[in-house]
Every structure is written in C-alpha cells, then in structure tokens.
Amino acid sequence: MLRLHPYSYHRPTSVADAIELLAEHGADALPIAGGTDLVPNMKHGLFTPGHLVALSGVAEMRGIRVGDDEIRIGACESLDSVATDEGLLESIPALAQAAALVSGPQLRRTGTLGGNVCLDTRCTYYNQTRFWRKALGYCLKKDGDDCHVVRGGTRCVAAHSADTPPVLMVLDAELDIEGPSGSRRVPINEFFTSDGVWNRVLEPGELLVAIRIPRPSSTTRVAFRKLRARNAIDFPLANLAVSVTLTDERVSSLKMVASGMGSYPRKLGKVEDAALGNRLDPAVIDAVAQQAFRQCRPLENITVDREWRRAMIPVLVRRALGEIAAA
C-alpha cells in the first residue's frame, strides 16, 4: 500500500491568506485544489511537502461568469462544472468537451480547471513508485542526473498531459496570477516553458486565480480531439485543438495547438498557409493535416509507440477540421 507522509493541512479562506501561508512555509509548502494529481504523486514520493495549503475554501477562485466580451472561470471551479455549464456549452463548447474528457466522472467532480492548467508533466520513467525509480537510478526530473528518454539530455522532456490548455491557447486565454509580489496577467500562450521539471512560469508562492477567455465571435469555430488508449480515465497520448474563423465561408484565421508529445503544448506554425482564403474542402484539410504531421515528433516519454502517435496527428486534424467544416 502506498501511504502519504505526515504533513500539516491549512484551509485559508482568501487568496491573500493562502499566499501568506505559502510564503511562511516556503519550499516546504504546496497549494492543493482537487488533489487528483498531487496526492498520487505524493504517494509515489515525487512531492513531500510538510504543509499543504488548501484552496477549496477560497471564494475568489470560484465561479463561472459568461459576459458579452469575456468569460471568467475561477481556477478552483471543478472540471465537471466547466463541462456542464450551460453558458460555456453555448459559447465555447470545445472547452466544455475537453474538460469532459479528463479522467473519469469522480475525478472531474474534484479536479479543477486551474489544476489541469498547472498539471505536472508526466513520463514513464517518472510516474512510478520510489522503489521502481530507485532501481532505475532515478531520472533528471526527480533525484537523478540522467534522462532515460533522451540519452545524454540535459533538459527534462516529460510530456505535457493536460487536456484543457490546448483549447485555451487557441482561444487566446489569459491567466490571473497572484503572489507575494502582487498580481499579474499572463497570456496562456506565454505560460508554458520547455523544461519538463517545471514547465510553467509560476514563481514560488504564486497562485493561478482565474482564467479569462475572450468570447469568440459568431464566425469562429473551435474543435478539440483527444487520443488515448481507452475512452475513459486515460491521460492523452496526444491532444489537438484548432480554432478557425470563417469570412464568407472562407478561412480568415486558423490556429492549431498540439500537446501530449513534449513538455509544453505547442502552437503549430504554417498550418494556416494552405487554408487562408480557401474553403475547408477535403483537399485543404488534407494539406493542413500533412503540415501538422511534419511538425509533430513525439518522444518516447509515454509507453505507446511514438511513430503510431505521430501518424495519428493528421487523423486528429482531419477529424477536427471536418467537424468545423460540417458545422
């Protein structure tokens, strides 16, 4: 049986109190929202904080508000709430769909949108018990000096495995962050880094408080596709989100983000070249799919053949753009 180590549990009721507790205990403290990822990682000895600062009682981090120009979602809103909110289903159904595809129903009722955005990267050599990792000699991400994915590598390449960030990225969402130094707003397209050990720009003691999304225009359509071994529970083998704006039934804007392959969700460049000014007919969709295929090269950080995962990228693109074309 995997057991949790001893720790103190704090329940602040405001963002200010939570930040004060994190500052007081420093590196020995971690925030916890739903805990659906953090607690299993603690059982594996990947994190051993002496203090957990619970965010579930912080009212400022709750609520879904759908306005005419902007949608604000508190970081502690559950994934189930995001998946079922009528305003989100009407305005940005792709985000609701992405939230609905995270894990299973029990974990979605506990897990939060903010937790999914800040999800720790995953790797077949990292997400194991302490006994397993010790037998291997540990890894670059935790306790070791060697990367077992890229031999001789000096940077961790554990996979970004969250479902909602690709959709938020094609929607140009922004993140409200608060910490000891005050408040700041970070575009989600600037939030992630290529370092698998800590792949986000959050500084020690900072909290993601809310997600703000510009409300898409009536001519913008967004689609999301998730690749996984089973249609429940599993983390993604690859994710793809695409946003298309149509003017007179022709593509005037196309954004595409893929994740699940490297340490951060990647915005794919040049995919719009074959689509701009054209209708989304099968030939255009196929050209976009092939451009996406050329840019995506999964690593062996997940226990599924990387060439098969790469071959599925154009399949996901065709399905996503086919959905948009048929809407």
What does this structure look like?
With 327 residues, the chain is α+β, with helices and mostly antiparallel strands. It has 3 domains: 1-56, Uridine Diphospho-n-acetylenolpyruvylglucosamine Reductase, domain 2 (2-Layer Sandwich); 59-118 and 159-214, 2-Layer Sandwich (Uridine Diphospho-n-acetylenolpyruvylglucosamine Reductase, domain 3), CATH 3.30.465.10; 220-326, CO dehydrogenase flavoprotein, C-terminal domain (Enolase-like, domain 1, 2-Layer Sandwich). It is 30% helix and 21% strand. The protein is built from 11 helices and 12 strands. The chain has helices at residues 15-25, 38-43, 79-84, 86-91, 93-100, 105-110, 113-117, 130-136, 164-170, 282-295, 306-326, and strands spanning 8-10, 29-32, 51-54, 64-66, 70-74, 174-179, 182-187, 207-214, 220-227, 238-247, 250-259, 266-267. The strands form 3 sheets. The chain has a 5-stranded antiparallel beta sheet.
Helix content: 25-40%
Task: Please describe the biggest sheet, giving its number of strands, its sense, and whether it closes into a barrel.
Answer: 5 strands, antiparallel
What is the global morphology? globular
CATH architecture of the largest domain: 2-Layer Sandwich
**CATH classification, class level of the largest domain:** Alpha Beta
DSSP strand tally: 12
CATH topology of the largest domain: Uridine Diphospho-n-acetylenolpyruvylglucosamine Reductase, domain 3
Question: pLDDT below 50 for ≥5 consecutive residues: which ranges?
Answer: none
Strand content: 15-25%
**Cα separation of the termini:** 49 Å
C-alpha-based Rg, rounded: 20 Å
| Structural class assignment | alpha+beta
The helix/strand order is: EHEHEEEHHHHHHHEEEEEEEHH
